Amino acid sequence: MKGTIFDIKEFSIHDGPGGRTTVFLKGCPLRCKWCHNPEGLIKNPQIMKKHNLCVGCKICEKGCNHPECEPFGVCIHSCPNGCLTVSGEEIDSKLLAEKLNRDKAMFEFTKGGITISGGEPMMQSDFVCDLLDKLDGIHTAIQTSGYTDEETYKRVISKFDYVMQDIKLADENEHIKYTGVSNRKIINNIEWLKKSGKEFVFRVPMIPGITDTEENIKAISEITNGHKTEYLQYNAMAGSKYKMLGMKYKL
User: Fold this and answer.
1) What domains are there in the chain, each with its CATH number?
2) Taking the model in full, what pTM does it have?
3) pLDDT in tens, 99-115
């Protein structure tokens, strides 16, 4: 089975217990205005352009016969300054599992493992489940918004040893305003997670004036109900990649 990823980060210490390798999947149903991984929003591979290196020669626009360049309408190999890169690649679950399994000894030594993040892993649920079936007894964790139907959520979460469940805004109208979707599915899945027996942690991004308000934090604490919760500092560089993707940062 094939899936689309945009990054593999090795030696991560912030994506679950121990030393980990984090696989970032493309595609997300949310459009959080503060998203710091805009290359994970769209499922298909995208061109990233380093505008500060571009001299406007337009050599990349002259066309080529490279099949890998055809979807983008520019030649990704021709830029003399190396302005163009592709964010995202399709990969076979077997090949990815073989790559990840090579580091099993390191994961055991650091009491770490593999984390699946995104984007939103639930958007590639079949690929995620197929990949985990091919891992060689390695500890696994997932970072998820929880925005999916109940059946998919249960099926995917059941595969993992550890769950990092985002919770951004408790108020439904505020959630729609700042993420583009209702939080009803998320809250429903959270209630199941709390009763599931899975090891998990809630993660709350602290976005100034949006999620870090006293009202929102209090409402979230009522949802988390004493379970382990991490409050994540806002990434001041969150908007830096949007221009490279031809997108606009909304905060």
Assistant:
1) 2-37+91-236 (3.20.20.70)
2) 0.94
3) 999 999 999 999 999 99
